[in-house]
Design brief:
The chain is of the alpha+beta class. Helix content is 18%, strand content 36%. The chain has a domain of 71 residues: RRM (RNA recognition motif) domain (Alpha-Beta Plaits), CATH 3.30.70.
Length: 137
């Protein structure tokens, strides 16, 4: 397997090198991603975990392939998430909180209803009489 660099771009923002390479592998199948990572790791003197292969495309009828590679300047940091998963499902009660407590109207809603201004309406009836009605807005 012979590797030729077609295009090399230093990407300081992402702290990596972006490569387009031509792989000549006449008489052999398309190289595997792991084999390519090992070769590029040796070429650039970096660990295999710093080499990322986006794709390998083989040209039809020829023992050549084109690949897009990213080589990170630093080893990637893997952050493990905690093993705790939420156990609450739809319809289940939450721990320590009875179902009735969750269904009660919130206090700010009660205050809003209590503070609603009263509206007085005068309704004129036949014969000149007026009737006053009060309601909350």
């Amino acid at each position: 397997m012979e590797i030729k660099i077609i295009k090399k771009i230093d990407n300081p923002f992402f702290k990596r090198k972006d490569l387009r390479i031509d792989i000549i592998h006449r008489g052999a199948p398309t190289p595997k991603t792991d084999d390519l990572k090992k070769e590029l790791g040796k070429m650039y003197k970096v660990d295999e975990s710093q080499v990322s292969v986006d794709y390998i495309l083989t040209k039809r009828g020829i023992g050549e392939s084109i690949a897009k590679i990213k080589i990170l300047n630093e080893k990637p940091v893997i952050v493990k998430k905690s093993a705790e998963k939420p156990t609450e499902k739809k319809g289940e009660e939450t721990k320590g909180e009875p179902k009735e407590a969750r269904e009660k109207p919130k206090e700010h809603e009660k205050e809003h209803d209590a503070k609603a201004p009263e509206v007085k309406e005068e309704i004129k009836k036949e014969g000149g009489e007026t009737e006053t009605q009060t309601s909350k807005a």
